[in-house]
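Postdoc handover notes: sequence design on the structure in folder B. Input tokens:
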């Protein structure tokens, strides 16, 4: 009730929720009380969570914040949310996001932008919460849920976490089932939590992760007790500092924070080593070929026949065209066009196939670093703190927005786990995050190391 009241009082201001499930939340909470009274109860009994609108929730608003899914209410529940409810968690509602998870500012949502609860010192101007999981990050930061589900294809958990002073982890590809999560770029998409601290993130990920016969890319590995990793020493841990992440034009305060992170880990007994990940510079252009290619294929299903919106036409082709023209926003259309282009006959080899080869080289950079004994890699999470809503530079040039993903996309390309942990404030009093990147399926080392930084 306290969380529902907080949402009712503050959601107009932040626009973090696109649907609040009052009745369902109270029913779930009552069921949870009954289990506890009977001496039963799971690891998350009664914990109120928000769910990104990308996760299918049975009978509840599920539109990936797109107009094209207008009115869609799935008859099934995603595996990740099913796992959370099975452990006793309670759903508060569905959270705002960039349309189909395409964006870095939550401004491409059909439901309008989310406002970051943080503002620069002495300013009333609204800042973006990051994206695409902007609603998840803002809701956690504004205490409108105890934690939230999110997804990350190129940074959409870690960048909004960094912009809102929250913790976000993208686990290894395959750790969480993608079943029931609306697909953006299937070879990159992963679910993970956004939470207020590292411990909450560890507890939530434990519940979200599972092997699932309905997702053949989910991995059959035991899910460790991540919480048990907290407080373990990082003495002797080898922390790699990749020189390619020292990008041109990086603000001094981001560089200073990175140095601060290095100092904290050194002080805690970790060994710092300089490393090279030579193909880093190709990551962004490669990502912005592979992800639109997969998106153009995944989004072909929204044709006015099977789901959501239908705009009638004189024949079926005109109906398809009118539905897609009215249903998708500009950024989504841009990605479908780029993706269709790079997959088309004559261009496939030059763009898509080439990008896949570069992706293999990016992954090999990480393999080599880990083979040389590096346990974890430390980088900034983002090249800057949260920028303003309707930022003129970003709006006039989509590539400026894409540059925000410079430190996060490599991790998805290589399928590795990455965590963003709040590490300090910039000169304007806005939160900044540090990113830790781990070996495949070694989320424990990320939690252990992040706990030293937070
Ligand atoms: N900003 C990136 C994009 O727009 C990442 C989004 C994501 O991780 N879902 O593709």
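Designed sequence:
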């Amino acid at each position: 009730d306290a969380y529902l009241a907080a949402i009712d009082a503050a959601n107009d201001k932040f626009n973090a929720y696109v649907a609040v499930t009052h009745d369902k939340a109270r029913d779930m909470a009552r069921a949870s009380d009954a289990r506890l009274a009977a001496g039963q109860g799971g690891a998350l009994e009664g914990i109120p969570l928000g769910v990104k609108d990308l996760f299918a929730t049975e009978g509840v608003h599920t539109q990936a914040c797109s107009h094209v899914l207008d009115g869609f209410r799935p008859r099934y529940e995603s595996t990740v949310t099913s796992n959370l409810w099975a452990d006793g968690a309670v759903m508060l509602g569905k959270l705002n996001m960039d349309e189909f998870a395409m964006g870095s500012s939550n401004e491409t949502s059909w439901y309008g932008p989310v406002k970051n609860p943080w503002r620069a010192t002495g300013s009333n101007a609204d800042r973006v919460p990051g994206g695409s999981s902007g609603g998840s990050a803002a809701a956690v930061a504004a205490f409108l849920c105890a934690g939230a589900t999110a997804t990350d294809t190129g940074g959409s958990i870690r960048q909004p976490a960094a912009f809102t002073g929250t913790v976000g982890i993208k686990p290894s590809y395959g750790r969480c089932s993608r079943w029931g999560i609306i697909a953006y770029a299937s070879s990159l998409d992963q679910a993970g939590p956004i939470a207020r601290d590292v411990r909450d993130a560890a507890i939530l990920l434990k519940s979200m992760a599972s092997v699932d016969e309905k997702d053949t890319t989910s991995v059959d590995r035991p899910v460790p007790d991540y919480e048990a990793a907290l407080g373990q020493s990082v003495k002797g841990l080898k922390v790699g500092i990749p020189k390619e992440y020292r990008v041109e034009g990086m603000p001094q305060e981001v560089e200073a924070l990175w140095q601060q992170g290095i100092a904290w880990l050194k002080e805690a007994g970790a060994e710092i080593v300089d490393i090279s990940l030579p193909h880093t510079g190709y990551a962004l252009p490669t990502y912005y070929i592979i992800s639109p290619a997969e998106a153009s294929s995944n989004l072909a299903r929204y044709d006015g026949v099977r789901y959501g919106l239908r705009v009638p036409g004189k024949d079926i082709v005109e109906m398809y065209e009118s539905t897609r023209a009215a249903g998708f926003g500009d950024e989504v259309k841009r990605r479908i066009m780029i993706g269709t282009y790079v997959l088309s006959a004559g261009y496939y080899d030059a763009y898509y196939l080439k990008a896949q080869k570069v992706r293999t080289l990016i992954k090999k950079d990480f393999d080599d670093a880990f083979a040389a004994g590096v346990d974890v890699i430390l980088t900034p999470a983002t090249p800057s703190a949260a920028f303003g809503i309707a930022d003129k530079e970003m709006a006039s040039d989509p590539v400026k927005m894409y540059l925000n993903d410079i430190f996060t996309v490599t991790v998805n390309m290589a399928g590795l786990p990455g965590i963003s942990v709040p590490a300090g404030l910039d000169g304007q009093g806005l939160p900044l995050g540090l990113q830790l990147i781990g070996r495949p399926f070694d989320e424990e080392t990320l939690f252990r190391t992040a706990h030293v930084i937070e």
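Context for whoever picks this up: The chain has a mean pLDDT of 97. Don't rerun without checking with the PI first.
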